[in-house]
Specification:
Elements (H helix, E strand, L loop, with lengths): L3 E6 L6 H16 L6 E6 L5 H10 L5 E4 L16 H6 L4 E4 L2 H6 L4 H13 L3 E6 L3 H5 L3 H11 L6 H4 L3 E4 L13 H19 L1 H6 L1 E5 L7 H5 L6 E4 L6 H8 L2
Parallel strand pairs: 1-2, 1-8, 2-3, 3-4, 4-5, 5-6, 6-7, 7-8
Bound molecules: 2-phosphoglycolic acid.
2-phosphoglycolic acid binds next to strand 8.
Length: about 250
């Protein structure tokens, strides 16, 4: 049985007071609800991570802290970078790797992403590996081959034991931050395709236990239908994760 995961990726949003108010509102909602059947994660900008962790810990919250990125290298002379071991030390347990914004704006390629996953796994953290096609690939019907390339060049380079520690997020780039989502059927088809490719490569136990999240303009209105699809095991939420009431509605969808 795969436990659903709803993760809020705040991206480079919110100032200090807003960020801490949002954590506090999310915890208030958690206290007033029963979220025990779902894993909930918040993924704030790095600079808010430690205070967010302390807030969650002091509140006795079950909410998981994640990181939006990490360095592909270990500690050392890499100005401006944050290492996986630093992320581990501040209390985060999940790290996004390969978000399309990192791939597109910071030229992160398969070789870099593979290194990042290695660093994350070395620290016993959970990589959330993001994959997704651009609109032109969807229109030219090459969305499945795009996803396979992204998986083969990074994730499929790892052992089954390593892969069993990962989460996959399918995020069609044309649906991110656009208010446009994949239809529930499009999401289900791609998630089933992704699962079957893990099945072929690693066998049924790993494939059946793999959590595959959907990301791309998930919101309180469309969440229930997307999350009711057989192979959709949760959501990676951007815009709607910046408002505690919307995030709550998605968790409870
Ligand atoms: P969105 O972002 O929900 O704003 O589309 C999702 C993501 O990029 O993770």
């Amino acid at each position: 049985m795969r436990k659903r995961l709803i993760a809020g990726n705040w991206k480079m949003n919110l100032h200090w007071n807003e960020a801490m108010s949002l954590v506090s509102e999310i915890v208030q909602n958690e206290n007033q609800s029963d979220w025990s059947s779902v894993d909930v994660a918040v993924i704030p900008p790095f600079i808010y991570s430690r205070p967010a962790f302390e807030f969650l810990k002091n509140a006795g919250s079950n909410i998981i802290l994640g990181s939006q990125n990490c360095a592909s290298t270990e500690n050392g002379a890499f100005t401006g970078e944050i290492s996986a071991s630093m992320i581990e030390q501040i209390g985060a347990t999940m790290v996004l790797v390969g978000h399309s914004e990192r791939r597109d704006y910071y030229n992160e390629d398969a070789a870099v992403l593979k290194e990042k996953i290695s660093r994350v796994l070395e620290q016993n953290l959970t990589p959330i590996f993001c994959c997704g096609e651009h609109l032109k690939q969807r229109k030219s019907n090459s969305h499945e081959s795009t996803i396979i390339d992204q998986l083969e060049s990074v994730v499929f380079q790892f052992s089954g034991e390593d892969v069993s520690k990962m989460v996959i997020a399918y995020e069609p780039v044309w649906a991110i931050g656009k208010g446009e989502t994949a239809s529930p059927q499009q999401a289900q088809d791609m998630h089933a395709f992704i699962r079957s490719s893990f099945h072929k490569k690693y066998g049924s136990e790993i494939a059946d236990n793999l959590r595959i999240l959907y990301g791309g303009s998930m919101n309180p209105t469309n969440a229930a239908e997307l999350l009711s699809q057989t192979d959709v095991d949760g959501g990676l939420i951007g815009g709607a994760a910046l408002a505690a009431d919307k995030f709550k509605a998605i968790i409870e969808a």
